[in-house]
């Protein structure tokens, strides 16, 4: 599937900002099932200095400075991307989840040892009380890992309410577990916590999802949003993605931007500004537009 | 056994410890003999005198530390013992070799963790201890520093077991503190015990400072003035040490807000001037150094600092991320890691350490439970070590339950008795346990270790933790040379400055200078007003104060902003019995009161020790003393008199001491700004009141208050009111007039610019002066002395804006955070 992806961010400041330092993780990372045909990012006012690097997790990070007085700042990230995700293995043929956990736990498996950071609690993913109970019904002995993961995803999807007003960026996993509501980020964190609690390696994936308009309605430009889901290491099958918010296996409609231990590692835009006053407003528009297949 | 002298009469060594002073036979160890006999010859009074001299030297060098007490920061004199800890070269040799190796090992571990992670992949270091530790900062992996830059400074805490073996109890790898205190301790001990020091042939510590400096210069690629010492600021417990060390190293002391990353490189920026900074000797913990990439809950540090490191334009010493090494659990793995990375045996053993995350370790810990000290493996001040044997049975069970729930979070260490050292307590010497701290620097040809350091003595004979926060005392460590240290005496006390002394660019210093000027002027005017009120009340017959005095009292309220004071319906009641309110204005700590202003003035001066001289600090102490104890009318009157005298001598001293243009200009900016504001406020106060107290009648009072020369010729052609206004606001002959102050400000602000640049604020003042030239007092004031328009209100507002403009241009900027949350889908 081919998409044009537009991510527009606009800050309006109450008072002039005379210097801004920002780090942006909006550029799609390189993954085998995703090919970027175009990758562009524009910043207004034009930064005096900008530099890209690849971070510890392999994500693209753009650092830039604006050092003249400005009252608003805009960032346009544009991609044309082709997603060609092969179907995952049949769930029932994946390794038993305890075997995967044992491999990760073992000290003799060099590859497993390099994944340890995705097994441990992280900044935003702690192990709240009751997290084991969440996965308990789905992780029966010997169950193939992908089956168990899908069952866990289904149970989160069915038992947790999607409610943007229920949580903020700082809501801990424990509260999400208690309140039983949240947004994609919360569900991803919750699921990661449940998987790590079982000794598995799980990471947080940020990206986009194509949303289709209700039947008979036109597609609304800019009404899309960024999205987050989970990736879990399944032994010889490698990393497999799962989207608990929509209870589906990411396919060609999921576009991957970045991944890390949790949201903190993949914040789309993080900045420190000098000036700006107390009341600034932020507008974000995301558009995932399906393009006709390329004539080759 | 030769008598040790009365000084040592009560010295009883703890049998369970190694004693530094005496051997098992109770005899003095040979290397203590000279010091002990020399001290024995001193009179009691002489000893006390030297202790006083030691305290005085520490105070004069600004050596203090801050303790945190119920969210408040209090400054204390740094506690130091007159007696040094004496060690032999041979004993020190073992420490030196071991500490150098350990520093080298730490450097390799850091390089591995932020690089290939072979230790994890080969199973030599559990992943939990790296990725689960808060010191692991993923953004620091992308800086890819070469091995040689991985660790510049290292600090080791050392203990000694009853058999006399040295072992390491702690590794300091982020911003090892104490180098400054160690230097200060040496300076002081060598001056207080000069001949004993000279005869003892003590190894100098200054060569270590030189090695540090050479290394920093090398990191800066020989750009000497591109190096600075980064401090969190005056609230930090060791701020005085940071300032002292900066002075000793000849480096400017900077705070994060003084620095700015522009174009991916770091600069010290002030107004239109900037200077590149390529090396920061930091005293900030890792994650506070860059709010953009590291700790997102803090705004300390330099936004973009890590990017500058990535760009190779900035080096931190130590490099960011080194906090990963400050993990007590690491000690349990060091012998094997040392083999793997260096191919050597670990020369200096660590304190016995067991990581509860390893089942065999946990079993051992449970079996030897009572002998253990338990802590988490995280760096956490709020979660100190617990000695199991000192806990109640309940607490023990609770602790064990917590460990069972998350064993990988806990580290157990054996309580080894630290060696005991002699400590001077009053007129006698007692024996307390101590921990040693020494330092290594990654110099040319490998790590070099300071020949000396600090001994930190516990506050009681059975202490097992050692920290100034817990009331400990420090000692200089004298390592005796086997040969005379001839060169030791010829080394200079101070290394030359690396930066040109002509410009103090740090905005945080400018901030203090500006406020030093402002509070001086503010306090002076208020003190004059108070003095005049006291005089008028003392001279007046016992009936109610006259109208002019009423007006003066109201002016005091307007000046101090301590409402209601004498203003409004509530204030009117005070007018006829004004003394209680005047005492309040004199002694209150509320903003606007005299004592508050004096305290704030002294507070601004506190971090300016490098710039202001010692004499100024004595004057400041006297200033604070004058108002320290609230008193009655006559006490207050005398105190205000003293305050004025001291403020005058302060200003005299400031002009004599400050030769450096920019610093001096900034204080003057503060003075002129506040004098201009005070003048406008004063004139307004006396023109809003009608009747006999109006401007003309208040003329001589106002002239006296503002120190306006009385010889000014009254202008007979104009109204008497207008004449007063002219003299106070517009006169060229009156150095206190508004116009004069504005002219000063204009000149000062221009002088702060680089040649060829203009300051928009200065230009604004020029415009304002032109307007003032056409301001006709005759048309602004009615026959009763009332002002006819709002021009003074407007002037007041403009002056406040000007003050804000100056702050924005020259003072530290306040950063804010912006993030984009993930949007929902």
Automatic annotation (TrEMBL), chain A:
InterPro entries listed in its UniProt record: Bac_transglu_N, Papain-like_cys_pep_sf, Transglutaminase-like
Ranges that cross the membrane: none
Domain Transglutaminase-like residues, every copy: 176-246
Listed SMART domains: TGc
SUPFAM superfamilies noted in UniProt: Cysteine proteinases (SSF54001)
Pfam family, one: Transglut_core
Name of this protein: Transglutaminase
Lineage, broadest ranks: Bacteria, Pseudomonadati, Pseudomonadota, Gammaproteobacteria, Chromatiales
